[in-house]
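[audit] Reproducing an earlier prediction to check determinism. Same input, same settings, fresh worker. If the tokens differ from the archived copy the diff job will pick it up downstream; this log only records the rerun itself.
[audit] input (194 residues):
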Amino acid sequence: MSEASSTSVLLSVNNQENQLDNTDNDVEDIEEIQTKSGINTVYDEYATYAYIAEFVESLEQGQIDGKKWSKKEKRVTKLGEKQFYKCSSCSKKMFSVKLRTSLEVQVCIEYGLHQYSNANSKEAWEKSKNRVLKMYQKEGKKPKEISRWLCLQLLEDYVEISQTQISNLIQRLKKQDEPTMTVEMLKNWCYSHS
């Protein structure tokens, strides 16, 4: 009886080893491009080009996401040669991977819309600043809520203002609203109350 039970255990161990070998082989076939790279940078797969020449032509003609892209750093990875790009008009990123196992080039673009900066525009800064103060005074919004709202309005000629900057603007506003007392006024007050 012990002989039969030990035989069945050996058979099940051998079956498990065979299954592990099959799984290991499958993992190599499944490997894909990571869609998350770097700190808080999420990429979506944009396209796969059959040949590098096709990709380069699309890149030069501005056909990738309808924008022009500037070359940045290059890395060699397990999948192949990875070239990073930055949008010529904003800070959005993209990368291409020239695969080692084929002639294909995979292109991934940072998730989200292109963020055009109006930071150099004095009018946009004033408009944003006035909106921040209005949202605080009349709507009672907190800096975090105001900052989120501004981020959603970047395409509407507003500039992004950090929560710290918003808090500073509010503090300055509070100081302006506080009545200031001159030395002469203080003397008069003291005489009247003594």
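[audit] rerun output stored. Observation attached for the diff report: Helices lie at 2-30, 52-60, 122-137, 143-152, 163-177, 183-192.
[audit] end
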